[in-house]
Amino acid sequence: MDLHGENEQKVAFCLELGRALHSFGTPAHRFEEAMHRVASSLGLEGNFLAHPTAFFAELKSASGREIFMVRAEPGETDLGKLVRIQATVRAVGDGSLPIQDAAAEVREIVREKPHFGAVETLAAFALSSGLAARFFGGGWREMVLAAFLGLGVGLLGQVTATRKHLAQVFVLLAATLVGFAGVALADVLPHTSAFTVTLAAIVILLPGLKLTIALREVATGNLVAGSSRLTDAVMTLLMLAFGVALGRQLAFQIAHAFKETASLPLPWWTEWLALAAVPLAYLVLFQGRKQDLKWIALGCVVAFLSARMGAFLVGPELGAGIGAMGMGLAANSFGRRTRLPNQIMQLPGLLLLVPGSIGFRGLTFLTLGETEMGVQSAFRMVFLAVALVMGLSLANAVTPPRKGL
Question: What is the pTM for the complete model shown?
Answer without folding.
Answer: 0.87
